[in-house]
Amino acid sequence: MPEFKLHYFDLRARGEPIRLIFAYKGVPFEDVRYNFEEWPSKKESFPFGQLPVLDVDGKRLAQSKAIYRYLGRKFGLNGQDEWETAKLDETGELLNDFMDAIKEFLGDQLRKEKFIPALEKFGPWFKRQLDASGSGFFGKKVTFLDFGFASIFEGLAHFEPEAIREKVPFLEEHSKKVLALPELKEYLSKRKEQHV
Amino acid sequence: MPEFKLHYFDLRARGEPIRLIFAYKGVPFEDVRYNFEEWPSKKESFPFGQLPVLDVDGKRLAQSKAIYRYLGRKFGLNGQDEWETAKLDETGELLNDFMDAIKEFLGDQLRKEKFIPALEKFGPWFKRQLDASGSGFFGKKVTFLDFGFASIFEGLAHFEPEAIREKVPFLEEHSKKVLALPELKEYLSKRKEQHV
After folding, report:
1. What is the C-alpha separation between A24 and A29, in angstroms, rounded?
2. Over chain B, what is the mean pLDDT?
């Protein structure tokens, strides 16, 4: 197995799906976390000045979604066939559109204007994909995408419990199902308490 | 070969990389184009109310980037190994960030504020990936990503010839190289004159 080193901030956010994938597969990795004070002095040494970055035997891969998909392929956490892989990719892009739509949703006004409508718009599409798999996960088995959804909706359920429960209860259930996977138990028991 | 049907507007934009991939591979597809008058009445019949959508033997795949990657895998237009595939995916995400950065760039003021700085920021990163492959394409051979870049920078070179020539001449060259591929000759000779 190559040597993996994840560079990210001391946050869950875009880094946590990567950590969950490693935890689920029991693959060791170095979890380097930068604080916002030191980041400006480190920024230039990373491709595109952004995090997360994953080092694989010293070679660098940036762009969170490219990293998720790479690990999905590498660890057998992708679709079971080319069509399922394509549909997971489609749903991943849709999750990204959802995240774009809810950017800066905090505050009551924005919550009404953006967050609730986004849940109402995207929720049924996410549900359709979940229902289609019949497994309770987004694919016929656990895939990289489940860790993305679980990570995001665990956080949202903390900040907006009522909206999540009312509009997308199936995503709260999905997160709980993913985070109850026995392979994650040890990692989660030691995980730092954070909501972003 | 499955039956392919592309649903998109009567534009190049997000649909053209898909058309170029089919043309390059000599794979027939139905090129359905909607005009903006009829679209509102069609919108609801598409997943997520968005285009492009690709039908593959009647099954629907939405999300342009998921479609590009699906066809890349299906037609052998992806990386030669898992690392090259990951790096192409990274560069594709970066191209997407670039497109986000230049949204609504028309008009002199926005041009100065957004378009030129985006070319200066992203250009060197694109160049690094091009240089790394050594082939003149983004991968060691032609990949799906080359059709995305060629399609975008062909359009930009029409609207902003000086900026493109000054800041990212290597991307203008890249587009020309891709669009000069002999496999595309017949398609391009019949293609409708459009710049978006």
Report:
1. 12
2. 95
